[in-house]
């Protein structure tokens, strides 16, 4: 089980930075981790938006972790940057602590600080497994994965460049 340091500072696009343990005081974190410098991360944005929206009213903080500076994250996400929390991880500190090898990724970080489910690249069945774990944990309905219009499976790109 992966457990990132609770002292890791997360840098939201809107608002002040806080340590990971502060983000986990009341809610779990459900992150779509993307690299704005690759077309593969762009391919999952529509799907990510739909999946994160499914959990928006639950006891999960849905978010994007973007491996870029704030202005680059905003440019890449466009209107999505205003729909949910966006963390900027230009130096990939958080990505390293999550032990991710491929992006995009879908990561469920439970309130106790443990990563209990994750998927790397875009494999609909693996993303569904993560979503199922979130739904089970928070007693919430599951999104349909894959759904019509979702991209075909792909491996993603290296997370640590």
Low-confidence stretches: none
Helix residue percentage: 25-40%
Shape: globular
Number of domains: 1
Quick synopsis:
With 161 residues, the chain is an alpha+beta fold. It contains six helices and nine strands, in the order ββαβααβαβαβββαβ. Strands 2-1-5-4-3-7-8 form a seven-stranded mixed beta sheet. A two-stranded antiparallel sheet has the order 6-9.
List keywords for this structure.
single chain; 161 residues; alpha+beta; Glutaredoxin; seven-stranded mixed beta sheet; two-stranded antiparallel sheet; 6 helices; 9 strands; 30% helix; globular
Overall description:
- The protein is of the alpha+beta class and 161 residues long.
- It has a single domain (10-17, 26-147), classed as Glutaredoxin, CATH 3.40.30.
- It is 30% helix and 24% strand.
- The protein has helices spanning 20-23, 39-43, 45-55, 70-77, 93-97, 124-138; strands at residues 9-12, 18-19, 28-34, 60-66, 85-88, 102-103, 105-109, 115-120, 157-158.
- The strands form 2 sheets. It has a 7-stranded mixed sheet. It has a two-stranded antiparallel sheet with strand order 6-9.
- Strand 1 and strand 2 (18-19) form a beta hairpin.
Topology summary:
Layout lengths: L8 E4 L5 E2 H4 L4 E7 L4 H5 L1 H11 L4 E7 L3 H8 L7 E4 L4 H5 L4 E2 L1 E5 L5 E6 L3 H15 L18 E2 L3
Parallel strand pairs: 3-4, 4-5
Antiparallel strand pairs: 1-2, 1-5, 3-7, 6-9, 7-8
């Amino acid at each position: 089980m992966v457990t990132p340091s609770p002292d890791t500072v997360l840098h939201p696009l809107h608002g002040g930075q806080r340590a990971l343990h502060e983000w986990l005081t009341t809610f779990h974190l459900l992150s779509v981790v993307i690299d704005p410098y690759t077309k593969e991360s762009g391919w999952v944005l529509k799907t990510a938006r739909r999946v994160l929206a499914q959990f928006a009213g639950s006891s999960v903080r849905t978010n994007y972790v973007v491996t870029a500076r704030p202005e680059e994250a905003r440019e890449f996400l466009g209107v999505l940057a205003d729909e949910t929390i966006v963390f900027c991880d230009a130096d990939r500190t958080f990505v390293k602590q999550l032990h991710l090898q491929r992006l995009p990724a879908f990561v469920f970080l439970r309130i106790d600080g443990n990563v209990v489910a994750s998927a790397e690249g875009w494999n609909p069945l693996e993303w569904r497994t993560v979503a199922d774990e979130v739904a089970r944990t928070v007693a919430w309905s599951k999104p349909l994965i894959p759904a019509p219009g979702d991209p075909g499976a792909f491996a993603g790109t290296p997370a640590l460049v």
